[in-house]
Write a structure and sequence with these properties.
It is a single chain. The chain is about 65% helix and about 5% strand. The strands form 2 sheets. It has a 3-stranded mixed β-sheet, with helices on one face.
């Protein structure tokens, strides 16, 4: 009987492993025709394949289901290994350890399958810029400086309508309220970008937010569980943009830089002023960093014009994240190495035209709004 169970488990594992191999092969083959991936998968299959899972996850609004399952696995797998080893000694057989190994391979295979089917293929789709005909091109230092001043003006206008506590901008909203409101921004831009439409789970604050701080992670979209998970301890002024960023991944925007841009669009289009401020201020932060890298002299000329409150918010955020690195820098190094490896595996180009894709997208939007050719 035990022998039969082991054979069945082996068959299941082989089937899952083969399916995972096919999915992995799809990840490589679909790089050959990104337009087809976009039409068939991103704009079709992707929107519907995880609907049952999303429906179930929306029934549990208090915490991320995927995060809880992952935490459970982190406890169950080591415990099961210990039990398997003990049983091997007691029955003088390697079968308990063999069963454990098969279960482990089955879990890993299932993870690969879910990753590919629930969003991984979006890495091989057309970029957001390609899908919506953005004019990405080389821009001058002067254009970048103008963009920074424009974003500063928009952020400052919103900041003047908001309250501040302990030297930083405050919304008076809980993380849960922000997660609920974030969808309003996406509804406002769906007509312009129909690819963002669909049924999605409401973003959720992570239970392990403090741990995420040590790893310098503000949010995650785990793919195998189609939930937008945000670090609830993220500095408040940047939290709306972070929430919108993870929601962009839900909507098929795989690349980080483009997810940042889509998050900016959703945030500034939200009826809530705090969301608008977060979107403009985050975009300004990226643009200022790009300006400093391109021309420290131009940066020095622009920075005195940046609203004092915005600079204080940015400085407070930098101190917040640095405080965790000072306590223990190892998690941040591990996180960076894992992220770099992940991007290389998924064949993500840097997307740089002149200042990095998010800033190039912001510049394209800026030119379009002003009718600049």
């Amino acid at each position: 009987m035990i022998e039969m169970k082991l054979k069945k488990k082996l068959i299941i594992t082989v089937v899952l492993l083969a399916a995972a191999g096919i999915c992995a092969g799809l990840m490589f083959l679909t790089r050959l025709d990104r337009a087809a991936v976009t039409k068939v998968y991103t704009e079709g299959i992707f929107r519907y394949i995880s609907l049952p899972v999303k429906w179930v996850e929306n029934l549990v609004p208090a915490f991320p289901v995927g995060e809880v399952l992952l935490a459970a696995l982190c406890i169950i797998l080591p415990a099961a290994l210990i039990v398997a080893v003990v049983r091997c000694f007691l029955c003088r057989s390697g079968k308990p350890l063999a069963r454990y190994g098969l279960n482990l391979v089955s879990l890993a295979s299932a993870a690969v399958i879910l990753f590919v089917l629930f969003g991984g293929l979006n890495y091989n789709a057309l970029t957001f810029a390609e899908r919506y005909d953005y004019d990405l091109r080389e821009s001058t230092i002067s254009e970048l400086s103008d963009l920074c001043l424009y974003l500063n003006g928009q952020a400052a206008e919103r900041l003047n309508k908001l309250s501040r506590e302990n030297g930083v901008t405050s919304s008076g909203m809980s993380v849960y309220e922000m997660c609920e409101k974030a969808a309003d921004g996406y509804k406002a831009i769906e007509d312009r970008f129909p690819g963002l439409k669909g049924y999605y789970t409401t973003p959720k604050p992570a239970i392990s937010s403090t741990i995420m701080c040590y790893f310098q992670i503000s949010g995650i979209y785990p793919y195998i569980s189609p939930e937008a998970i945000v670090n609830a301890r993220t500095p408040e002024w940047s939290l709306p943009h972070t929430i919108c960023h993870e929601m962009a991944h839900q909507r098929g925007i795989a690349r980080e830089d483009e997810a940042n841009y889509v998050a900016y669009l959703a945030a500034i289009s939200n009826p809530d002023v705090f969301f608008q401020y977060s979107g403009y201020a985050e975009a300004l932060s990226y643009s200022l960093n790009a300006l400093y890298s391109a021309s420290p002299e131009a940066y020095a000329k622009v920075i005195p014009y940046i609203h004092k409150g915005i600079r204080e918010d940015m400085s407070a955020s930098a101190r917040f994240w640095d405080s965790f690195v000072k306590k223990n820098e190892l998690p941040a190094k591990i996180s960076s190495a894992v992220n770099d490896t992940y991007l290389k595996i998924n064949d993500i180009p840097d997307g740089t035209r002149s200042y990095g894709r998010i800033v190039d997208l912001l510049l394209a939007e800026y030119r379009l709004a002003r009718g600049i050719n």
